[in-house]
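ASSEMBLY PREDICTION REQUEST
Request ID: AP-0331
Submitted by: J.K., bench scientist
Number of chains: two
Total residues: 639
Priority: normal
Notes: Please return the full assembly, not individual chains.
Input sequences:
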Amino acid sequence: MEVTKVINATRTFKIGEVETQALRGVDLSITNGEFTALVGPSGSGKTTLLQLIGLLDQPTTGSVFINGKEATRLNRDQRADLRKGAIGFIFQFFALIPTLTAYENIELPLLLNGMKPAERKARVNEMLEAVGLGERAHHRPDQLSGGQQQRVAVARALSINPSLVLADEPTANLDTENGKQVMDIMQKLNKDTGVTFVFATHDPRVIKYAQRVVTLRDGLIVENNGNSTKA
Amino acid sequence: MSQLLKMAFRDLGRNKRRSILSALAVSMGAALLLLFASVLRGEIQSAIQPTIQLQTGHLQVRAVSYNENKISLKWEDLVANPDQVIAQIQSLPQVAVATPRLVASGIVTAGEDSRGVQVIGIDPASEANQVFRQGLIAGQFITPDDRDSIVVGKPLADKFDIQVGEKVNLLVNTSNGNVDEQLFTVKGIYSTNTTTYDENTVFMPLAKAQTITGTENHASTIFILLKDQTQADAVAAALQSPDYQVLTWQKMTEVISQTEDLANSFMYIFYLIILGITATVVTNTLVMSVFERTREIGILLAIGMKGYRIMAQFLTEAAVLATGGVVGGLIIGGLLVGYFAVYGLPINVGAMGISGYLIRNIIYTQLTIKDTIILTVLTYIVTLIASLYPAVLAARMEPVEALHGIGD
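STATUS: Completed
Returned structure:
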């Protein structure tokens, strides 16, 4: 089943009088359980494509579907609702709320989804254990290492049982060991829970984790190795 | 709600100094509003009561043709046989005291200096003049039989540098339009702590005033104090007669109410300025906070938080700031108002010369519960309104732009 589908998407940014075409007509389909890497040099459009799939941005032309629903027809609040329940995000910078503890950061999307307190508590603890941070639950981001922060971000993204987790350069700010740890956790969760991962990267060590590699250049998909079957 | 509050406290705690200074700005705003409201109210009271006590009484009975501004001494403009009129007035149970006064304009000269004054002939023994007797700070008060003695106010004595026992020349208008003059001994110096009154008013016994002005057995007015000032209209109605005009204290202090209305209008402008400054500080704090947290707002939007929830977050922070600020304002304002209510706020009214408007030299602040509630709630609401712009700014951010740290 297709978790997301992008049809002939273009994205043009206008800065002053200058127009830049970040995507020039992209078609992409991601099915349930994939562990897919979007690769390409800087400026190739991989982050823009990830943002369109994540409903953080709208294509200039073309369509984006999430779980069969055409998201490009939805309004701002409806897109927020879809993100809230179906999409988890992991960013290059350790995107945690600095005033909240690891526990509270993971709890936040569950609160937004209206989960009951007892259920929420169990789920947060389960996620903390899954990323090996049970002991660090009540530490704030500035008391955690970069790798630990990114693991909290992974736990937060997975806490809502999303259909799709989008990761933008998830290891870019981590050393080799922490980068490997984060990728191992993501791969394990993909295998254990079947959740679909799409990550943008240009790090060869990360690419080797992918079951499928989609290569972009100058806003177009130039290579799609098509290995979309789950390993 | 508890989550919003928890996050609000933590967000404000990130930059404690800025948050405290912003709350302090709200506190100072609220405290200033309370202080000025209490000064204004205190001033109204300090104007009306002395004016009644010294100048107007609760009621005055005058001849129909008497014009206060002209200080006429013609017999037809005066009350004849005042004792008979007073006897009639005092038969009313609401009346505490009624006493005749004869008012004439005059000029006091001492050495090279001279000054225009109001000469008032009074019954020195009357209860209504107790305020002057009690205000005596040097010498003695005049008696009904004195024929060459006067009492003068302290500011006048200071101006002429005269002491008790010294003589001054007093020139007085008379009923036939001429003037008469005589040397008088300053028997006493009084102070009512009302500079505008004390520096312009000289007292002598009624009989002497009638003699020097040629107004034999006449008075300018019958000055009446009531047991209860709210009875003024009822007593005035009872005293109505075609031969006299009866004026109530409300009518005679009209100029005070009009001046206070004017002062109030200026005060509202002043309130607006204070609240405007407070609002600007709060808006500035929260706008800075929005820009500092742009990327966080992007994260919140990415995980599905809606604009209204982000707006609620910033409004909650503003509410916490406003609550802290208003509580601080109540404490600071309460202390200031309390201090000036006990020790008074000295004001220089020497130069103020609004006719019929007497202000004591010290204003004792007065704060009503109603004023406190209105001004506190007003400060709170203005602070919340001031936070609307930054809250909307945050709520309207696009996720992608916010994640890249680009504000609106």
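REVIEWER COMMENTS: The longest helix of chain B spans residues 16-56.
SIGN-OFF: pending second reviewer
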